[in-house]
Amino acid sequence: MSTLNITNRHISDELKSAIMHNTGGQKVIERILKAYGFSSRQAFCNHLGVSQSTMANRYARNTFPSDWVIICSMETGASIKWLSSGEGMMFEDGHDEKAVMLQHQKITNGVLNSQNDIICDKSEIPEGLNSPFIVTADKSRFLVDAYEGEITDGLWLVQIDSLVSIREIYRFPGGRVRVENGKASFECSVSDVKVLGKVVTKTDFVEL
């Protein structure tokens, strides 16, 4: 009696065993980060809205992240086969491997609102960033990187009195800063300014 072969793609016994026994997750997570273009696991946690402890537990236990594989494939177009095994091409549909998906937020009346993610060219994103994302405000688009250090002179994404904005800030001695805002510029204590990110690049929209 013959057996009908209903499969048209080969999966190695090793990969099949890893999936069924929920193992081999560390390399899979690394490929997921590569598909998104994230430089850190924290960036992926921020994107998916999961805690650092969830990521740490899965990575430490080498748990196969089947749910993350499916989400990553649906969002980036990356091949499930490549994400799961590293075999074949990252993007079977010809998707540009030089692209990276970044979170996109828009400032409206001092409030950050999440927008659809934006696909950017990796060559336009400087190396060494922690967790870059895109912010649009007025007629400009900003590449912003998450930041936890001391505020210095430069352009920043900040929150002051619960209102979010992009502001140029200058650091003065004694823990004081000057916040540039045209005629409404002012000085305050550095503790009055909550830093949400450091602006890396700015692009102004041109009206035709």
TrEMBL record:
Q: Which GO terms describe its molecular function?
A: DNA binding
Question: Matching Pfam families, A to Z?
Answer: Phage_CI_C, Phage_CI_repr
Q: Which domain of life is it from?
A: Bacteria
Query: Can you supply a Gene Ontology BP term from the record?
Result: negative regulation of DNA-templated transcription
Q: Which InterPro entries match?
A: Lambda_DNA-bd_dom_sf, Phage_CI_C, Phage_CI_N
All copies of the Bacteriophage CI repressor N-terminal domain together span 28-91
Q: Where is the Bacteriophage CI repressor C-terminal domain?
A: 102-200
Q: What is this protein called?
A: Phage repressor protein
Q: Which organism is it from?
A: Jejubacter calystegiae
Q: What is the lineage of its organism?
A: Bacteria, Pseudomonadati, Pseudomonadota, Gammaproteobacteria, Enterobacterales
